[in-house]
Every structure is written in structure tokens, then in C-alpha cells.
Amino acid sequence: MTILRLPGIKKGGTGLDAHLNTKTYESCMRSCSFELFAGSLITGDGEVKENIHIGVTDGVITEISENPLKREYPEAYDFSMKTVMPGLIDAHVHIRYDPSGDPEQQSHEYQALRGTENARKALYSGVTSLGDAGAVGNVAFAVRNAVNNGVTVGPRLFVSGEMITITGGRSKTPGERLEVNGADSAREAARRLLMYHNADYIKLGATGAISSAHTGPRHPQLTVDEMNACCEEAHNCGKLVHSHCYGEKGISNSLEAGCDVIVHGQTLTDAHIDYMRKNDLILMPTLKAFCGHLDHVGEGGTHDRIVSTGIWEETEPNFRRAHKAGLTIAMGTDAGMPDDHFGDNYRDLEYMVEWGMTPMEAVQAGTLNAAKSLAVEDNVGTIGVGKRADLIVLGRNPLDDIRNIGKSLEEVILNGVFIEK
Predict the structure, then answer these.
(1) Is there a contact between 371 and 89 (Cβ–Cβ < 8 Å)?
(2) Of 348, 384, 399, which Cα lies nearest the Cα of 126?
(3) Which residues sit opposite 112 in a β-bridge?
(4) Residue 376 has what DSSP assignment?
(5) Does residue 25 lie in a domain region?
(6) CB under 8 Å to 310, separation ≥6 — which residues?
(7) Strands, DSSP E only, in 127-220?
(8) CATH number for the domain that contains residue 407
(9) Residue-level pLDDT at 103
(10) Which of 18, 168, 202, 311 could pair with 156 as two cysteines, CB 3.0-4.6 Å apart?
(11) 3-class SS at 300?
């Protein structure tokens, strides 16, 4: 079937409002009203509907019905033999990085340009929203703002800005990263991100990292008081807090401090899982990053440290226990890390299914749950009246085989606009 492309929207050339207010690029506002007929509709919240009409006006879903729509739309698209579902949300990436090299060898300006291209690759693969979980300086904010203002094409971007860490926690050079010492220092750092840059969420370094040669990934870093100060400031602004942590102590500190999302999360105890489930907290296991590293063990650096630190050995059983216990799990690939590329972000869901999820659960992890992890579920992540029209069209149903997202993607619709590669 031939899809009519909207005028002036080559390669998705529209301004997109990542913060989901009323601002939209004028060409999109004039053009993105249509009716879509879906043979199979996966809503993102666990439901499947057959033979559904969807009406879209100015980037918003205005009608959903089994019957003919009440309004008239200037264009109609027949996907009666296709599956329509929400666009994927990858809530943990690093757009500035080059997965094949060292990003710190390039200027911030260069990294912002590379970040724009990385974000576009994700969009073309069906990811309509990204959460950038820690850049340097203003890199990620610059890309987000350029997308919002229609300067470049990209998915919706939700940006934490720099990760807040202890002195030397993520850097080799003094002053290179956003480092804090004490609760007052941490509070000031969070306020600066939230007030000066309108950070969409806050990212904390509760432990060391696999990629940091001078510290162990399970070593606690930020204190409970430091993290609690950041959580208070973020929550005062209606924003969530993501905590990077491996190891029992780092997770315990994060939960005590009030963090909302545990990222990576190896060494979850039963008590952690029980607390997170009862308090509607989210685990973002970033499976694609770990499984991708495993393919390169023996090449040195981060690849080997994932095994030598024992993190890899814990990853699968940790995920299976969390899933079996009913913990809310969200998609986050850590794309941008070594050999963790943009453009195949959907593979995170394939690993989830391989390790015990049903395809429907994986779809929900990559849509509704990921939206919840960014506190944007009222606008994206599911298909419903009043939601943004961020959709993907597949030639084959992912509930039959989750790999169909990557294998049969035919259309990406962002804010009601068909994205042309």
C-alpha cells in the first residue's frame, strides 16, 4: 500500500515538543490529521483490539472505535493487514557516545552533533521517545532543544543532564563532571539541573560503574543524605530520580533516599524487590548493554570487566527473580556504551522474552512502563484518546514473535507525522 507523505515532512522534518505542551511546528499543525485503520491494535497496557479505527488531529489521538469514526479526516490509511502499537520508549541511553570509540576525545559541540544522529537512528528503528541518562555539560540539553524547536528531526527527548556523582566518581580530571560533596552540595546540583536547564529527571550515581577502572561497580558512592536531597528537589518539581547502582548497599541507599527507578540493579535482594513492588518503583535492567558486552569478552576493557566483576553472572538470575516477583520492569538499553549501538534498541525486549517475559509483557516494558519511568505516561506509551499519536506499524505481530518489531517495521509515526527515512 502506498502511504501519502505529508508535504514538507521529508525525514520527519517537524518540530516536536518533547515536553508535551501545545507547541508544535506549524507545518505539522496544518497537516497531521488523518484516519488510520488497524487490523490489530496493541494498546501498550496489555490489551489487543481487532479492526480498529483511529482518528488523529494535530498529533493527538482524537477517536478510537470499532465503528466508523464520527469526524471526517482529510486522509485515510489502511493497515488492515498490519499491527499497530505505540512507538517504543528507550528510557536509558547516552546519545553523545560513539559505541565504537571514546567520546571524550571529541568536543562537546561534536558530541551534540553525534547525539543528534544517534537519536535519529533510534527513531528510524521505531523508538519515538528517548531518555538520555547522563551526558556532559549541555550536550543532551542542546540536542533536546534543537529537536523541540524544529531545528532537527528526532524522537521525543527526555534529558537528565549530567549524572550527579561523588568527587572522582565518574571522572579522571577534576571538574570534568557534576561532582558533589554533602547534602547541600547535592541539593544545589539538582536545583541547577532542574531550574537552569529544565531537566526532565535526575540521574544519580549510587555506586561505581563497570566502565570505571578506578572503582568497583558495587562500591557505594553517593550517601543517603546526598541522594535524599536530590530526590526532594526533583519530587518538588514533579520529576523522578533514576539511580545507577549495582550491589546490595547501593540499592538499599537508593531506596532509603527515595529514588524512583533502579537502573541496572544487580544484587537485588528479596527485601529490595518486595519494597519496590509495594511502592510502585521501577527496575530498568538495561539487558541489551550486558548481553552486548558478552559478545566481546576477550577484547579487554569494559567487555572483560562485566565478567571479571561478577556482574554478568548475576544479570540473568537477577532479572528472572524480579520478573517472577511481579516487579515493574522498563526498557532501557544503555545505548551508546561500547558496542551498544543505536538503531537496534528493540533488542532489549528480545532479551527480556528470552529470559522469561511473554511478548506482551515485553511490549509493555517498552511502552507503558518506560513511559512511567519518565513520568510521561499520561501523554505517551499507550494508545488512547488524548494521547500523542506516536505509533509504529508492523507487518507481523510481535505477540507471535517479539523479533517482529525489528524484522517487520514498516512505518514510524511521531506526533501524528509519518517519518520518512
Answers:
(1) yes
(2) 348
(3) none
(4) -
(5) yes
(6) none
(7) 127-132, 156-159, 165-166, 179-180, 202-205
(8) 2.30.40.10
(9) 54
(10) 18
(11) coil
Question: Is 125 a residue whose pLDDT tops 80?
Answer: yes
Look over the chain and give the mean of its residue pLDDT values, rounded to a whole number: 89
**Domain count along the chain:** 2
In total, the chain counts a number of residues equal to 421
The answer on 357 and 253 residing in a single domain is yes
Q: Cell digits for 316? A: 540473568
Which tens digits make up the pLDDT trace of 57-79? 999 999 999 999 999 999 999 99
116 with 130, same domain?
A: yes
- Helix ranges, 25-106 (H): 26-31
Alpha-carbon distances of 248 from 51, 123, 218, 327, 331, rounded to whole Å = 48, 35, 8, 17, 22
**Element containing residue 120 per DSSP (H, E):** helix 108-124
Beta carbons of 360 and 46 less than 8 angstroms apart: yes
Residue 2 inside a domain? The answer is no
Give me the residue label for grid cell 538495561: 286
- The residue range of the domain holding 361 is 88-373
Contact 266/209 with Cβ under 8 angstroms?
no
Q: What is the pTM of this model?
A: 0.92
Is 116 within 8 Å of 143 (Cβ atoms)? yes
Question: DSSP characters for 22-45?
Answer: S---HHHHHH--EEEEEEEEE-SS
Distance CA 349, CA 361 (A): 9
* Residue with more model confidence, 414 or 102: 414
| Rounded distance between C-alpha atoms, residue 81 and residue 49, angstroms | 13
Query: Per-residue pLDDT tens for 133-183?
Result: 998 899 999 999 999 888 999 999 999 999 999 998 877 666 668 999 999
> Cα dihedral angle (389, 392, 397, 403), rounded to 10 degrees?
-140
User: Is residue 406 situated within a structural domain?
Assistant: yes
Q: How many Å apart are CA 308 and CA 311, to the nearest integer?
A: 8
Strand partners, 37: 53, 78
